[in-house]
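Reviewer 2 asked us to include a model.

Predict the structure of this chain.
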Amino acid sequence: MYSSNLGLAIAIVVALGLAAVLAFIASLFVANLKAGAQAREMAAEARHEAEQKMRESRMQDLRPLVASLRSFEDSEGASGWPIRFDIRVPHEVVPVFGIEAELEELLSKIARYAAKVMSPGATLQVSARVERGQAVVHWRDLDASDASPPLARFLEATQAVGHAGARVCERIASRHGGRIYAAPDAGGALGLTLRLPLPGRAASAGG
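Predicted model (structure tokens):
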């Protein structure tokens, strides 16, 4: 009788262990199915985003986009807009293949950040050019007394408004195959530089 009960107990333990193993395998199978579905969904979203970008993208000349920053002074009024602009663009086209609205958003966010951190009445120089197979836009505070002024720390901004704007600008630059980073220009104080590949060039925007 005792051996029969022991055998039954062992059988129950073995059955429970087997059931636990089977349940674990089943949970792994379900998890893998979910992960696979999620990966396929993310891949589909990435393809859709890339296709949408291609549909919305067209050849852009950065010169009028940069020059349009002057409208901030005109629309806000001399007393309403705290900084001035020194816009410098070449006679030659500065071409990029991208989404005009996103490039305008990037330029606007940096201009508005500069207006918050630069001294009232200071001048923000914004220049555009073609350099080493890339379209380049550079921002610098012409009145900065510090070698690393607040404008150059835009990408390090910890304030909510600065941080959010910086991340948006980084995403836009990345979506267009480029990058934005702090750098000096023409021996001046540290500023911001945006590099984007020229149409037909490899999407490499290294310094």
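The first helix runs from residue 2 to 56. The longest strand covers residues 123-131. We have added this to the supplementary material.
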